């Protein structure tokens, strides 16, 4: 048991070390002006996608359920935090305090939605769960697009028609403007904050996986009937994993909202496309492999920008890399090759000891 714990601890430390070293290297390159402003600008999005991939892997890889509504929780966290920041922009002048409160609100609201959605949805499994979670993500996106919220001296006004339906006084301010979203959110997100959020996400997920609760969740994934027969509360542990995953996605949404001057809800950022892209990161990195999710998210986010100069061949190379990563992680021959060589190096290291 001690040997197993040491192995898990060692693996976790490697993951933390990999993230910290990558951050130090990128910060050094940014400080010395060695990378373009375009690459510097996608550092926060990379942090967002890493958090999304790791949090989704908790549901798909550790719990063993296919969820396609992860972008919906990101949307909830983004809009609830942006709404708070826009309202409190002139009240709380300290940007760090305001952003911290916005982060807590975004995470809490996403967690509440995770519980509300999880209680009925987690009774389903397989394709049915995927379809319902996909529908949830689309419903959230469409609800945001028809919502108009304004504020004047009389308080808040709500409408689902248009701005005129708010019936505000002339001095009123429109906060949420339907399809045009929220404009003027303080741009408080930074690469440092994104890095800290990644470490917090890893700490929560890795500790959860290696805990008693994590072993119960994996037991449910491996054999639900056997887990239930030994007294594991299926609903409790499934809801726990789903809610934690939703809360972390909400945190990524807060980073996303505070990295843009205008926040809108469309298919590419909070819809089906976004959910599928995050799922691709999880699958290509290896289902249940947290470190793999991080690597896949970084590579597949950086690659289109690094290949931008190749123009016509950019997406072709991107597709080839996708196929290569898929074959490396999932092809039987590639798995056999990895196990053979990894076991060789492991035996060699043990022999040296």
TrEMBL record:
Name listed for the protein in its UniProt record: Branched-chain amino acid ABC transporter permease
Location of the protein in the cell: Cell membrane
Organism annotation: Candidatus Mediterraneibacter faecipullorum
GO MF assignments: branched-chain amino acid transmembrane transporter activity
Main location: membrane
Transmembrane feature ranges: 12-30, 42-60, 67-84, 96-121, 128-149, 191-209, 278-303, 315-332
Family annotation (PANTHER family): HIGH-AFFINITY BRANCHED-CHAIN AMINO ACID TRANSPORT PROTEIN BRAE, HIGH-AFFINITY BRANCHED-CHAIN AMINO ACID TRANSPORT SYSTEM PERMEASE
Keyword terms, alphabetized: Cell membrane, Membrane, Transmembrane, Transmembrane helix
Top-level taxon of the source organism: Bacteria
Keyword Hydrolase annotated: no
Membrane topology summary: Multi-pass membrane protein
GO CC annotations, alphabetized: plasma membrane
InterPro entries: ABC_transp_permease (IPR001851), LivM-like (IPR043428)
Transmembrane helix listed as a keyword: yes
């Amino acid at each position: 048991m001690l040997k197993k714990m040491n192995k898990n601890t060692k693996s976790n430390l490697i993951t933390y070390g990999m993230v910290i070293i990558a951050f130090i290297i990128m910060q050094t390159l940014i400080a010395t002006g060695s990378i373009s402003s375009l690459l510097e600008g996608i550092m926060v999005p990379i942090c967002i996608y890493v958090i999304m991939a790791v949090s989704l892997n908790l549901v798909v890889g550790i719990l063993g359920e296919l969820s396609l509504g992860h972008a919906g929780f990101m949307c909830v966290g983004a809009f609830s935090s942006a709404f708070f920041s826009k309202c409190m922009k002139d009240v709380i002048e300290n940007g760090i305090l305001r952003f911290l409160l916005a982060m807590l609100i975004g995470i809490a609201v996403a967690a509440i939605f995770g519980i509300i959605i999880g209680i009925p949805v987690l009774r389903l499994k397989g394709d049915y769960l995927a379809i319902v979670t996909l529908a949830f993500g689309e419903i959230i996106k469409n609800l945001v697009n028809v919502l108009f919220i304004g504020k004047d001296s009389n308080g808040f006004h709500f409408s689902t028609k248009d701005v005129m339906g708010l019936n505000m006084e002339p001095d009123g301010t429109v906060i949420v403007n339907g399809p045009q979203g929220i404009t003027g959110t303080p741009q408080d997100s930074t690469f440092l904050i994104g890095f800290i959020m990644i470490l917090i996400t890893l700490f929560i997920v890795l500790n959860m996986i290696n805990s008693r609760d994590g072993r119960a969740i994996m037991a449910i994934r491996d054999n639900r009937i056997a887990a239930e027969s030994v007294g594991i509360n299926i609903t409790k542990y499934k809801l726990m994993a789903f809610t934690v995953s939703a809360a972390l996605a909400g945190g990524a949404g807060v980073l996303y909202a505070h990295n843009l001057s205008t926040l809108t809800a469309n298919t590419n950022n909070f819809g089906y496309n976004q959910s599928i892209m995050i799922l691709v990161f999880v699958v290509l990195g290896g289902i249940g492999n947290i470190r793999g999710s991080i690597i896949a998210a970084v590579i597949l986010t950086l690659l289109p920008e690094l290949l931008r100069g190749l123009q016509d061949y950019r997406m072709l190379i991107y597709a080839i890399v996708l196929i290569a990563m898929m074959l490396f992680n999932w092809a039987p021959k590639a798995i056999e090759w990895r196990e053979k060589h990894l076991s060789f190096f492991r035996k060699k290291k043990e022999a040296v000891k």
